[in-house]
Amino acid sequence: MIIKLNNFVINDRESRFYLDTVKGFAIPEIRTSSAVLTERDGGYVASQFYGMRKVSIQGRIFGEDEAELEEKRKEIMAAVRQRSIAIELITNAGNSYLVNGHLTDSEMDFDRLINSSDFRFEFLCPDPVIYDNTDGTALSIQVGKQRGGGYTFPYVLPVSWQAGSGEVTARNNGNTPVKPVIKFKGSMTDPTLINVTTGKLVQLSGFSAPEGSEVVIDTRTRSVLLNGGNIFDRLSDQSTFFSLQPGDNVFRLESASGADTVVATIEWRNGFMGV
User: In what order do the strands lie in the sheet with 229-230?
Assistant: First the structure.
């Protein structure tokens, strides 16, 4: 088992940073709304939602002598004091899982041992989902604009056939919904990306952009950017920051002009609520 904190490796014999325990990769805290029944036995449970994920990492540092141990203490402290930390867990089975957290507490005391120190770091992860990082990158698909194939009539020989574009499937192989990043590239007029499986969509209304434009919609952070500038107000009232459900999600792309060259890219990682 290996932990990486922004690529700083723990449980590596060469570096002499060793792991004892990693906690927080099970199901996170569940926020529960409940109440007792008036003048009756029992009660009821209403809405339940996952809370933020808490991750705890405990281990030991070894050095050849006091000076090397002190330098290694500085190394690991520098690695964890970043504003946001990508915490990667590589299991003994060879799978890689990723969460993003913020340091909330640490402990690394000096004691009578001159060549080792125990450490403990506590992190709070705003997003409770654990993401599959085994391939080292996000998954993605491209969705072309909905159109039929064929050729224009009357035609001139030789005939040039155009392939049709239809629905494309994104598969979330995890066990929990995940928030994708959606990119529209090319010329576009009121582009609409529809999750046919769920009926949810994201649409820019009263909007057009020339060739070479890129719109990036992050459904987790709820941001909508055109070439880096905010265009959140262009989202239609029908739009939602939808999730990819576990299993197959079928997508269709539409736009208001036949001359548009827009292509949608959907990026995601398979997600789990516990491993």
Answer: 139-144, 263-268, 181-185, 214-218, 223-226, 229-230
Answer yes or no: CATH 2.60.40.420 is held by domain 2-36+44-132. no
CATH 2.60.120.860 describes domain 139-270: yes
List where CATH 2.60.120.860 sits in the chain. Answer: 139-270
Alpha helices, DSSP H, located in the chain: 66-80
Tell me where in the chain the CATH 2.40.30.200 domain(s) lie.
2-36+44-132
State which amino acid sits at residue 81.
R
List, for residues 226-273, the tens digit of each pLDDT value: 999 999 999 999 999 999 999 999 999 999 999 999 999 999 999 999
Is this structure's pTM higher than 0.90? Answer: no
Supply 48's token pair.
């339940």
CA distance 75 to 66: 14
Rounded to whole angstroms, the Cα distance separating 265 from 30 reads: 33
What angle (nearest 5°) sits at the alpha carbon of residue 239, between those of residues 137 and 185? 50
Tell me how many helices (H) and strands (E) the chain has: 1, 23
Confidence of residue 163 (pLDDT cuts 50, 70, 90): very low
Place of tokens 């808490």: 54
